Amino acid sequence: MRTINFLQPNTIAQITAEKIIHYNSDLRTRKDEIRYGLEWILSGVNQLLVVLILTIPFGVFKEGIIALLTGAILRMFSGGAHLKGYFRCLLLSSIQIFTISFISKHFYEVISQNVNLMHLFLGISLTIVCFKAPILNKKSNSFSRRQRHQLKGISIAMFICLLMVGVIWGSTVETFVIWFSLLVQTLTLTSFGKNLFAFIDKIIPDRQATITGK
Amino acid sequence: MIRVSVMKKIVTRMIAIISLKAKSFSSVASCFWFAYEPDLPEEDEKE
């Protein structure tokens, strides 16, 4: 029994990898690596497209890209909680990026008046990163203890660098976008974030098309 | 004139090379850049 999820990067990547092997049989042993790389690319492109579609009509495109890049840079090294299905991940990430962008731009005055509170949360977030990062999922066996310490170090460095980029820009909309992105990404390192994602996975029904195949 | 089959071979090979580069790049990261994480390649799982 094989489970197929139509239009997902996984399905498209598998079909494409098979086509690639059909024309390049010498790459047969690397088929699954090609599939993985393709899936990585496709999911990233999809996320970028969705951000474009959501942010341009509301005039927060630049902020959306900053939120996407900030979250991605930190998450690449710190890891974080995951959702099980691709589309729920895409949806949640997109809502997150849009919300951060929209709030930072359209509630700028309110945030500016409470910037000390944000500084406090950023300090707490940095502490969380120091203690919790990296949070690994499928790659939990891929890194040695030494490599995990390296990832922790890089996560802390990335957090501080992004924080400083925001400081250099001053109290601008872009600064708040970066800081909010850091806060939200750090949330996924906590038990609260993990439980929240588990709850979301539980309440959203799993709709997979199942066929009998090879 | 280049035959269609040769063009297909070239294009698919280029896609393969780009995909393998992306795979190499992703190996230094702890996870995907957002909440979704694809299944690791079989070779990496065995390791």
Provide an overview of this structure.
Chain A: It holds the Pfam family AgrB. Chain A: This is AgrB-like protein. The complex is a heterodimer of chains A (214) and B (47). Chain A is mainly alpha-helical. Chain A has one domain (2-209). Helices cover 73% and strands 3% of the residues of chain A. Chain A is built from nine helices and two strands. Chain A has helices spanning 9-23, 31-55, 61-78, 86-106, 108-113, 115-132, 145-169, 173-187, 191-203; strands spanning 2-4, 209-211. A two-stranded antiparallel sheet of chain A has the order 1-2. The longest helix of chain A is centred in the first third of the chain and has 25 residues, at 31-55. Mean pLDDT of chain A is 89; it is low at 208-214. With 47 residues, chain B is an all-alpha fold. Chain B has one domain. Chain B is built from two helices and no strands. Chain B has helices at residues 4-26, 42-46. Chain B starts with a helix and ends with a helix.
Strand content of chain B: under 5%
Number of strands of chain B: 0
Low-confidence stretches of chain B: none
Compute the number of structural domains of chain A. Answer: 1
Average the pLDDT over all residues of chain B and give the rounded result. 80
Q: Helix fraction of chain B?
A: 55-70%
Radius of gyration of chain A: 19 Å
Number of domains of chain B: 1
Supply the helix-strand structural class of chain A.
mainly alpha
Shape of chain B: elongated
**Percentage beta strand of chain A:** under 5%
**Overall strand count of chain A:** 2
Distance between the termini of chain B: 45 Å
Which class of secondary structure composition applies to the elements of chain B? mainly alpha
Largest interface (CB within 8 Å) is between: A-B, 53 and 33 residues
InterPro entries (chain B): AgrD
Protein name (chain B): Cyclic lactone autoinducer peptide
Organism (chain B): Halobacillus litoralis
GO molecular function (chain A): peptidase activity
